[in-house]
Structure formats: C-alpha cells, structure tokens
Amino acid sequence: MSGVFRDSRKALDAFRHDALDVVQSTNLECLARARGGDAGHLWITAREQTGGKGRRGRPWVSNPGNLYASLLLINPAPLERMSSLPLAVAIAVHQAVRAVLPADAPPLEVKWPNDVLIGRAKTCGILLEAEIMPFGQHALVIGIGINIAAKPDQTPYATTSLADHGASVSPEELFAHLFGSMADILALWDEGRGVAEVTHRWRSIACGIGEKITVNLPDQSISGIFSGIDDHGMLLLDRGSQGIMPVAAGDVFFEPNGPKAI
Q1: Which residue range or ranges hold the BPL/LPL catalytic domain (predicted)?
Q2: Share of the chain above pLDDT 70, in %
Q3: 262 in a domain, yes or no?
C-alpha cells in the first residue's frame, strides 16, 4: 500500500467509519474485523466500552459521553519505520483537541510518547496494538480514548476532561476533527518516510523537555533530565555522568520540584 498516505485528500476519502453502540473494546472490534479480512482504513467508534484497556493491560474507564475510537490499518509501513507512528498519532489527537478547547485553557501538551495533557493532567489515552493475520498481513490498531464529559479517578497520575476546561463538544463532533487530523498526519508521516517533520512537530508540543523525570520500565525505575527525543522518536534521558540513555518504551512521571536543565 505504498503511497496511500501521500495525498491527504485521497487518504481522507479512503477511510471508512462504523459507529457502534456498546462494545467490549473498539480495539478488539477492529482486530476481529482484521481477522475477517477487512482491508483496513476503518474507524470503529462506540458510545460505551465494557472492557476498555490502556497500556500494560490497565483497565480504561469507558463511561458514555467520552470518545472511544479505534483505527484499523493493514500493512501501514515496514516494521523498521514504525517507531515514529505513536508520535504522529499524538500530533493528530493534539490537533483535534486543540480545535475544540477554549483559547484560555491551560497548556495543551503531549507527554512522551503520546499522552495528551491539559495543564499536566491526562485527558487522552492512546494504545497501539498489532497482530499478524493468518494470511500474513500486519494489522495495526490505533485505539484512542478522550475524556470529554467524564474522567477516571484513583489513577497514579492527574486526570482531566475537556468539560473541566469549558469545552462543550459531543463525541461525534470531536471525532469529526480527529477523522480529518489523522488523515492529514498519516499523509505527512508517509509510512515512516516523513519522520523528520513528525519529530519536529512533536517537539513543538512536547511536555517537560529539560525537566527531571522518572521513567518506569518493566523491571526498574530510572531518573534523569528529559533531553527530548532522537530522530526516531526514542526518549533521551540525561543521567549526568552516566551519559544519555535512549528509552524505547516506558511510563514517564514528572517530578514536581525537579530541576530544569539550563
């Protein structure tokens, strides 16, 4: 499918959308469609999820009034060019939220790699899941949950919703913005060939570059100064005398009173 995303107008026209009522998970629904031979470019949205999940299998509270959307792509890019896709997705979500957020709202930023924050509180979760189909195709699902009317509590991080900041928008209206911004960004990303422009745009909306952070890995937690990202989207953690450590995946936490790099 080389070149599918080069013309954003054609990409926009190529996408399909199936709006459902209640599902276990929009990601699971997309994977089921892929196993059934769906060609991809398919958005699935739902009013409510009964079994939504976030990273590392954490449950994702899915009350009505928020946006639950998943995009199915088939063979989106060669595997060696996939690492920058989460950054591109975050840019698309940021643009969609920016379009409906009042101008006087707190800063809208992206925490590495793709959490969208308003005033340092999480308002969106993004989960990418991949599966090799029996017929050899690579199915990728981009799951997006955006807190519009409600937000979860009892989380290890601060959360917020668009309603908390004066945004009056329905899930359908917000999805219309996301539908367009995702087509535009995937055209820019161009199957990973547009990584330079994607990383440039991501840095312009990034949260906390130059601040002290802790990165939770599966087997340890490490701290240092967030020095930004490399040209492939990996987090660069400055550990002082131990040098710069690239991080491919992990949960980032900012230290409220941590020093900033000069």
Answers
A1: 14-190
A2: 89
A3: no
Question: Whose CA is closest to 34, among 143, 178, 135?
Answer: 135
Give SS3 for 107: coil
Amino acid at the residue 113:
P
Q: Give the bridge partners for 234, in sequence order.
A: none
| One domain, residues 198 and 88 | yes
DSSP assignment of 115-129: EEEETTEEEEEEEEE
Round to whole Å and give the CA distance between 36 and 34.
5
Domain boundaries, position 219: 212-254
pLDDT at 54: 54
CATH of the domain at 21: 3.30.930.10
Cα–Cα distances (Å) from 186 to 52, 157, 243, in that order, read 25, 29, 34
Cα 191 from chain centroid (whole Å): 17
Distance CA 100, CA 74 (A): 30
Q: Is residue 3 part of a domain?
A: no
Q: What are phi and psi of 13, to 5 degrees?
A: -70, -25
In-domain check, residue 48: yes
> CB burial class (10 A; 0-12, 13-18, 19+) of residue 31?
buried
How much is the pLDDT for 256?
A: 66
Whole-structure pTM value: 0.89
Are 64 and 48 found together in one domain? Answer: yes
Q: What is the pLDDT of residue 66?
A: 95
Q: What total of structural domains would you count in the chain? A: 2
Residues of the chain with confidence (pLDDT) below 50: 1-6, 258-262
Contact 212, 240 (CB under 8 A): no
- Both 81 and 130 in one domain: the answer is yes
